[in-house]
């Protein structure tokens, strides 16, 4: 898996509309080429940050889907379906329309938005003995629809110059990146570690709340830690990349079909698989159109949905 | 010292008071069966013992030590709980499921050691599931699945094992197989078994002592002979039941009488 990530990362850096050979890339990293030449600048300042961003976003969304599927014991769950991405999108769009700086304000608003949706979803089902999985999912679906309406409302208010920018962003866009923004992404690394540590309790949660508790798991603490951690990293990623769908649904599913439901394996594998997948999708999004590029969210869905159906069909037989 | 001791246990499930001041003693190494009509609080009692429900008031002690003094992990090493139903949304294999029983002994990220694998293997041999250790849970029959869950509980190396209607959906042969398994495990390891059951004859055959419950209180505790009387059963279940001796001898046999439902409102 690590090899796959390395290969796709290298491809992502090497291939682009300006064209440069694999050899150039190696030369740039070994410092053998003039650092001010156009190739070097493109590779160092445009493609490299972009590949890193794609890797981080892909890993986060795949893990986010994995965690939510485990918590809700529902293979359809992912941050989008629960409205958590939608909530952070509302926050981020408000920030963009107000013309705030991406960091820290838009990021902060996105996080606030996702936490607000999470809090609302949880409040909907509060007062029950525990987190009821169907109620949580239903609450999320409603929040998602509500956020969608607010996003449309905000778009209808915004000036024509902003509309294209926001729409592109909504479809999932990795083109707005530079080295500085990548440092913000370092915030998600501790989240990965937390999720990895909680992989074994997640296995037990799949056996049901009672069974997990009877085997010594503090279900309430584990569940809320995972919910907050995941919402945080998803909101960090959403305001960097917009709404990129399907990774959270497809990647965990594919690997669960291949290596089984043990989260101690699934967490690292989804992390690597998610990042490779998005790097390659982004590569296609840059290369396929004759002019310019298309939002990567279109590619992830176009590849993800049929692949998912195929795997489902194969597993049934 | 008794393995489990309850004093004035009260418990609420939502609006409804399900246990109303229950006091019980269960001896170490005993096969103890909880019986009573639907809604009498049997499962709530079991869940309270496994600390899945927090009691409103009253005392629970395991081996003289109060339930509150145990951490979740400590409790999981002492008490194993076998739920009525198994969640099968994500199909683990039999071996993976049984191995999960080791989790109270592992650290936070902890990986299983050689010893944990050995214990899981023994548990799978004991419950006769080892020959399909690599099958997925959703490919098993009801009896096989029940044995897998029991193997997981055995893997926890508990002192006390709580069973919630372990034979409810099984054919008679599998019922006996499960019950014999529990009885053998109890005798070999000297552990305490507390089982909830609707099957009165099963309760009489395997239980050392029984508690008959109704509406969250104890009606009668004692050996099957003292609990299974015509009077008590009719009063508790509201249905005529004949009691005679089982053809096996030495245990009472209960036969519900068709068409003789008694209208008894408290």
Please characterize this protein's 3D structure:
- The complex is a heterodimer of chains A (317) and B (266).
- With 317 residues, chain A is mostly helical.
- Chain A contains 15 helices and no strands.
- The model of chain A has no long low-confidence stretch (mean pLDDT 78).
- Chain B has 266 residues and is of the alpha/beta class.
- Chain B has one domain (2-261): 3-Layer(aba) Sandwich (Rossmann fold).
- The two termini of chain B are 36 Å apart.
- The mean pLDDT of chain B is 89.
Structure characteristics:
heterodimer, A: mainly alpha, ABC transporter involved in vitamin B12 uptake, BtuC, 76% helix, B: 266 residues, alpha/beta, Rossmann fold, 6-stranded mixed beta sheet, 4-stranded antiparallel beta sheet, 12 strands
As a percent range, the share of helical residues of chain B equals 25-40%
Radius of gyration of chain B: 19 Å
In the predicted model, the low-confidence regions of chain B spanning at least 5 consecutive residues are none
Query: How many angstroms separate the termini of chain B?
Result: 36 Å
The overall average pLDDT of chain A, rounded, is 78
Q: Major beta sheet of chain A, specifics?
A: none
Mean pLDDT of chain B: 89
- Largest interface: which pair? A-B, 27 and 33 residues
* Annotated CATH topology of chain A: ABC transporter involved in vitamin B12 uptake, BtuC
How many DSSP-defined strands of chain B? 12
Large-scale geometry of chain B: globular
Q: What oligomeric arrangement do these chains adopt?
A: heterodimer
Proportion of residues in extended strands of chain B: 25-35%
Secondary-structure content class of chain B:
alpha/beta
Question: CATH homologous superfamily name of chain B?
Answer: P-loop containing nucleotide triphosphate hydrolases
**Overall geometry of chain A:** globular
Could you state the order of secondary-structure elements of chain A as H and E?
Answer: HHHHHHHHHHHHHHH
Number of strands of chain A: 0
Query: Element order, helices and strands of chain B?
Result: EEEHEEHEHHHEHEHEEHHEE
The number of helices of chain B is: 9
Q: Main beta sheet of chain B, described? A: 6 strands, mixed
